[in-house]
Amino acid sequence: MRETLLSLADTMSGSDLIKAKAAKAIMAQQVHAACAPGGSAKLRAELLRELMTILASKRPRLVRAHAIELIGFLGSKSDDKALARLAADPELKDNIKMARERLRRGS
Q1: Inter-residue contact 100 to 88 (CB < 8 Å)
Q2: SS3 37
């Protein structure tokens, strides 16, 4: 059973830097594994929902920026609209721009 991205995002938000770094790596590993050929569409959709929830939360900027980066790998062109609505956020503007570019290239 995998640990949810929401739980890992909470760990990333904590004060223990070693656990935060490990949580970030596990999040990335889960997303990249789901993106592999033959990956489950259901799992990809579930991970994407969790990442969007993290993005809409009040978690620290670095946690939300990591979620945006992962959305760029996991999402599709249709997810560009969800990111576009957040593009005006000055804290995440550059992260969103990079993720949207990755989505437009057909990731």
Answers
A1: no
A2: coil
pTM: 0.86
* Residue 46 to residues 22, 61, 68, 91, Cα–Cα distance (Å): 21, 22, 15, 26
Long-range contacts formed by 51-59: CB under 8 A, 24+ apart:
51/5, 52/82, 53/6, 54/5, 54/6, 54/9, 55/86, 57/9, 59/9, 59/10, 59/12, 59/13
pLDDT tens-digit map of 27-62: 999 999 998 888 888 999 999 999 989 988 999 999
